[in-house]
Amino acid sequence: MKRRKFFTLASLGTLGLTIGGHKYLTYQYPLTFKSCPDIASENSSPLLRFATLADVGTGDRNQYMVAKIISCYFDSNPFSLVLLAGDNIYENGEIEKIAATFEKPYHRLLEQNVKFYAAIGNHDIRTNNGIDQINYPGFNMQGRYYTFSREPVQFFALDTNPEAPWSEQLKWLEANLAQSQQPWKVVFGHHQIYASGKRRVNQELVKRLTPLFFRYGVQLYINGHEHHYERTQSIQGTTYLTCGAGAKLRSVGKSDWTAYAISKLSFAVFEVYQNNLEIRGIGTDGKVFDHAIISKS
């Protein structure tokens, strides 16, 4: 697939909005609010800062609101990469929609050379089994599942669809986890493992993945699929973060292992230090609504 030209796309229109008490008289695609809301600088110096969101590919106002705020947050607290945990293009993964669902909403980040790394969701495989997205250069995928490192973290992207090549994928995952030299290990995929929304606990993924997470010290698993934000307590050493409220919302309850849950358009930002990893859930007002620290030990 030929590399597409970014950021030369026509405007889609203009809307009036109020977000988090801030009145913006015009909202012109792609993302030309007159100003950003006040976003605090964290005044920190992490070894790595990255962001994540999922279930974003609607091309509608909700997606663009979240995309705008993540760009505003970047202005105050720069990060180098974004994880997209699946359902990157609704409804059927059509690559023809890539401008409206990716290139336009995130154009400011792309212009700043922020790298996006995508996982494949259930909507993404409806067209050509997701191959068009896998080959799309802006998603930086190296296959249905892949790994990459940004010190001090090694990331592992999975295809968590039931139709995925699970036998070979699990062998690959175990081999790469066993060989990892990075002190922090973060796995991301589309489907939830522990969540308190519509689909609840995914028992099949509990069986397939959590023994490997425990054996090789995976500290964090990130997913979408459920359209809410939810952070679990540590479950056998792993924190599970549902971050599927990048454009769509559904209600969420609470389970015994839930540390924080809310149905709120949002994304998450992570700051990685030598011994700690900090998680921040951020809403469309640019304010932190959830803050937690994971200890490497």
Give a description of the structure.
The chain is of the alpha/beta class and 297 residues long. The chain contains six helices and 15 strands. Helix 5 (166-179) runs parallel beside helix 6. The protein is globular and about 45 Å long. The N and C termini lie far apart (43 Å). The model is unreliable at 1-28 (pLDDT under 50).
Features of the shown structure:
seven-stranded mixed β-sheet; alpha/beta; 6 helices; disordered N terminus; six-stranded mixed β-sheet
Radius of gyration, in Å, reads: 18 Å
Largest sheet data: 7 strands, mixed
Number of strands: 15
Give average pLDDT, whole number.
Answer: 90
* Separate helix tally: 6
Strand content: 25-35%
Give the SSE map.
Blueprint: E1 14-19, E2 22-28, E3 48-53, H1 61-76, E4 81-84, H2 98-103, H3 107-111, E5 115-118, H4 131-135, E6 146-150, E7 153-157, H5 166-179, E8 184-188, H6 203-216, E9 220-223, E10 229-232, E11 239-243, E12 258-262, E13 266-272, E14 276-283, E15 288-295
Parallel strand pairs: 3-4, 4-5, 7-8, 8-9, 9-11
Antiparallel strand pairs: 1-2, 3-13, 6-7, 10-11, 10-12, 13-14, 14-15
Helix pairs in contact: 5-6
